Amino acid sequence: MPAHFPEAREAIQRIRVLARTSSPVIVALDGRSGAGKSTLAEWMADQLEGIRVDQDDFYTGGDLGAWQRLTPREKADRVIDWRRVRDEVLLPLRNGQGASWRPFNWDTMAGLSPETITVPPSSIVILDGAYSARPELADLIDLSILVTLDDETRRERLRQREGEDFTSGWHAVWDEAEDFYFGTIRPPEAFDLVISRPS
After folding, report:
1. Cys bridge to 133: 30, 32, 46, 193, which one at CB 3.0-4.6 A?
2. pLDDT (tens digit, 9 = 90+) per residue, 109-153?
3. What is the signed CA dihedral for 198, 161, 62, 56, rounded to 10 degrees?
């Protein structure tokens, strides 16, 4: 459980300190696919009585062939619609308002869902997902956290979670994008805190 490793407790403490002088506190919980971000984000939101926003709701979609034709930089730049994250989620919440958005339609794998997600104003917001700490959102982020897990364990989790999809070619696409993002755009030293999850 997250409470059992020190970096997670340190993250909670740092957020509580920030919350004494600033509200809301917006936290970007970033990391590679399968690193355990969502489990950690849910635990943190529960501990802090905050809300968790799933950045996967802002996946842009597209078929495998189209993604394979892009450069690693283009993949990293386009996979998440960070403009919608900024305009529909972070700006309203930063201004003490609720936020609402239509998530990507994972049922049809195209377009937006007919359902709307609505969240109330909150003093703590956890933005959970790879690319959540990208530079274009930095002015709205109070604390950027990188979640890491050794590659062998992370990949095994992805295999168990996604089955055949893991070997279909999609993860080669995302590995390239994540290698570029975490190697060039947001390397570990660019984060305020690194949480190394135990295997």
Report:
1. 30
2. 899 999 999 999 999 999 999 999 999 999 999 999 999 999 889
3. -50
